[in-house]
């Protein structure tokens, strides 16, 4: 089973890129974040024609939004409004084999890493705290969590560790919250299990005139699994080339395979 996660930054604007990706990579399941669309306006016809006839989603006009597209039957397993923000940032689906997939879109957090000066940063920390508490009290098993978590936790997950210590997405307090969520749920990092060493990015800013040459990236997109199925995971990849497609998202898809 091949699972892909991708912050698409508007599924309607980039419908053609999703179609191309599904044609070229043919994942069994594709989890999208930042769909920026109500569920009823997600352009499903072309996806369904390629075999993705099952969808579980939460939508929101112009903002946020998460969707799980699947070739195999899935059951809606609910959602959580972490930090009670009223945003469409989480949805879960259960496969026929009982495995639950969580698709998450953690708030970016704005530009100033101080909750007293920046409300968005406080919301991000509260969102992560609520995730931690949820997984602590409802500890997952046979579960996979994917999504744009908007944190690059390791030194080699960013282009310059020292330069980014005071930049939102790599600050020590965010990294600590990230690890708190992992520890609470017993989650393990599938991508870094498969690719344990070396710089690895999944996001490159639109602000760079030549993102590929500058290569000032961050690994913001993640695939986690619970200990009982981590041994079934393999084949992790970041599809960097997708970032260079016409009118791309600023995120590249991340893929992992599971023998389940």
Fold blueprint:
Layout: E1 2-7, H1 15-25, E2 29-33, H2 45-49, E3 54-58, E4 66-70, E5 74-76, E6 90-95, E7 100-105, H3 119-137, E8 143-148, H4 172-185, E9 188-189, H5 190-194, E10 203-204, H6 211-214, E11 217-218, E12 221-225, E13 233-238, E14 254-258
Parallel strand pairs: 1-2, 7-8
Antiparallel strand pairs: 1-14, 2-4, 3-4, 5-6, 6-7, 8-12, 9-12, 10-11, 13-14
Helix pairs in contact: 3-4
Overall description:
Helix 3 packs parallel to helix 4 (172-185). Helix content is 22%, strand content 25%. The strands form 3 sheets. A 6-stranded mixed β-sheet has the order 3-4-2-1-14-13. Strands 5-6-7-8-12-9 form a 6-stranded mixed β-sheet. It is α+β, with helices and mostly antiparallel strands and 260 residues long. A hairpin with a 7-residue loop joins strand 3 and strand 4. The protein has one domain (2-258): Endonuclease/exonuclease/phosphatase (Deoxyribonuclease I, Chain A), CATH 3.60.10.10. The model has no long low-confidence stretch (mean pLDDT 98).
């Amino acid at each position: 089973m091949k699972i892909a996660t991708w912050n698409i930054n508007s599924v309607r604007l980039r419908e053609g890129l999703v179609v191309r990706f599904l044609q070229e990579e043919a994942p069994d399941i594709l989890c999208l974040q930042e769909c920026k669309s109500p569920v009823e306006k997600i352009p499903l016809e072309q996806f369904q024609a390629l075999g993705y006839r099952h969808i579980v989603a939460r939508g929101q006009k112009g903002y946020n939004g998460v969707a799980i597209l699947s070739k195999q039957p899935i059951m809606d397993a609910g959602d959580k409004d972490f930090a009670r923000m009223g945003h469409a940032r989480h949805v879960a689906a259960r496969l026929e084999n009982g495995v639950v997939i969580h698709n998450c879109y953690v708030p970016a957090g704005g530009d100033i890493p101080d909750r007293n000066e920046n409300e968005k940063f406080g919301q991000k920390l509260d969102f992560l705290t609520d995730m931690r508490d949820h997984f602590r009290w409802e500890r997952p098993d046979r579960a996979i969590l994917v999504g744009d978590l908007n944190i690059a936790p390791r030194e080699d997950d960013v282009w310059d560790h020292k330069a980014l210590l005071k930049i939102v997405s790599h600050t020590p307090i965010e990294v600590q919250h990230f690890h708190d969520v992992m520890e609470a749920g017993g989650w393990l990092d599938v991508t870094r299990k498969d690719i344990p060493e070396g710089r690895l990015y999944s996001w490159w800013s639109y602000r760079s005139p030549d993102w590929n040459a500058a290569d000032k990236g961050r690994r913001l997109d993640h695939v986690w699994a619970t200990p009982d199925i981590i041994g079934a995971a393999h084949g992790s990849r970041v599809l960097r080339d997708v970032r260079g497609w016409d009118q791309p998202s600023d995120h590249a898809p991340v893929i992992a395979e599971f023998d389940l």
